[in-house]
Write a structure and sequence with these properties.
Low-confidence stretches: none
Order of helices and strands: HHHHHHHHHH
Shape: globular
Largest sheet: none
Mean pLDDT: 85
Helix content: over 70%
C-alpha cells in the first residue's frame, strides 16, 4: 500500500512540477485573496489583525478546493482514470498517494500565505510570558494536522465528485460544509498561539487530529468503491 502511495504521490507531484500550476496559478490566487481581504478591512487595522488567523485559513480552504480539483482533473483526460483502476494499484495506496500530493502542495502554499499575512497584515506573535519554541510548535503542529484533515476530506469528496459532469460546482458544495470544523478549530488554535498562549491551542489541535484520523480512515476504506463508481 505504501509503495503504491509513493508511486501515485510522485506521479502527481512530478506533473505539478512540470506544469507549474501550483506556483503560477494557485499561489498567486492565494496571495490575491489575502490582498482582497486587506482592501476590505484596511480602514480598521485592528479588525484585520484580530482576523488574521481566520483569513489565513479561509485562503487555505479555497486553495484546497483548487488543489483537489486539479489532482482529479489529471485523471480525467485520455481515460487516465480507467488506466488507474486497471493498474492493479491498491486503492488505499492511491488514496494515500493523492492525499500526500495534496498535503505537500498545501503546506507549500501555507508558507507563502504565512509570509503574506506577516507582510500585508503586519501580524506578529505575542511571545510575552510564553516560550517562542512553544508558540512555533503550536503553529506548526496545528498547520500539519489541519492540512492533513483538509487533504483527507478533499481527496475523499474529490473522488466522489470526479465522475460527474457538474464536479466543478458540486465539489465546493460537498467539501466546504464538512471542513467547517477544521476552519473553526485551526482558527482558534492559531489565535491562541499568536496571542502567546500556546497551551490553549492544543485542545483545538486535538479535535483537528480526530477529524483528520476519521476522514483518513474513511478514505482508506471507501476510496476503492468510490473510484470504481466514478
Amino acid at each position: 500500500m505504501f509503495r503504491d502511495a509513493l508511486l501515485v504521490a510522485g506521479k502527481d507531484l512530478r506533473i505539478e512540477l512540470r506544469s507549474r500550476v501550483t506556483t503560477n496559478q494557485v499561489a498567486p490566487f492565494a496571495v490575491l485573496v489575502l490582498v482582497l481581504f486587506a482592501f476590505a478591512l484596511d480602514p480598521d487595522r485592528g479588525v484585520l489583525g484580530r482576523a488574521t488567523a481566520g483569513l489565513f485559513w479561509v485562503a487555505v480552504l479555497l486553495c484546497t478546493l483548487l488543489a483537489v480539483q486539479r489532482t482529479f482533473a489529471l485523471e480525467t483526460a485520455d481515460g487516465t482514470r480507467d488506466a488507474l483502476r486497471l493498474s492493479g494499484l491498491d486503492p488505499a495506496g492511491v488514496f494515500l498517494g493523492k492525499l500526500g500530493a495534496v498535503v505537500a502542495q498545501l503546506l507549500a502554499l501555507e508558507v507563502v500565505l504565512g509570509v503574506g499575512v506577516a507582510v500585508l497584515y503586519d501580524t506578529s506573535v505575542d511571545t510575552d510570558g510564553a516560550s517562542p519554541v512553544a508558540v512555533v510548535a503550536a503553529l506548526v503542529v496545528t498547520a500539519l494536522v489541519a492540512t492533513l484533515g483538509l487533504g483527507a476530506a478533499g481527496t475523499l469528496y474529490g473522488v466522489l465528485a470526479a465522475g460527474l459532469r457538474v464536479r466543478e460546482t458540486l465539489l465546493p458544495l460537498l467539501l466546504l460544509p464538512v471542513t467547517a470544523p477544521v476552519l473553526i478549530g485551526a482558527t482558534r488554535a492559531f489565535e491562541s498561539a499568536l496571542d502567546g498562549v500556546p497551551s490553549e491551542s492544543w485542545p483545538w489541535t486535538g479535535l483537528l487530529a480526530v477529524f483528520a484520523l476519521v476522514y483518513t480512515a474513511v478514505g482508506l476504506a471507501a476510496f476503492g468503491p468510490l473510484l470504481e463508481e466514478s
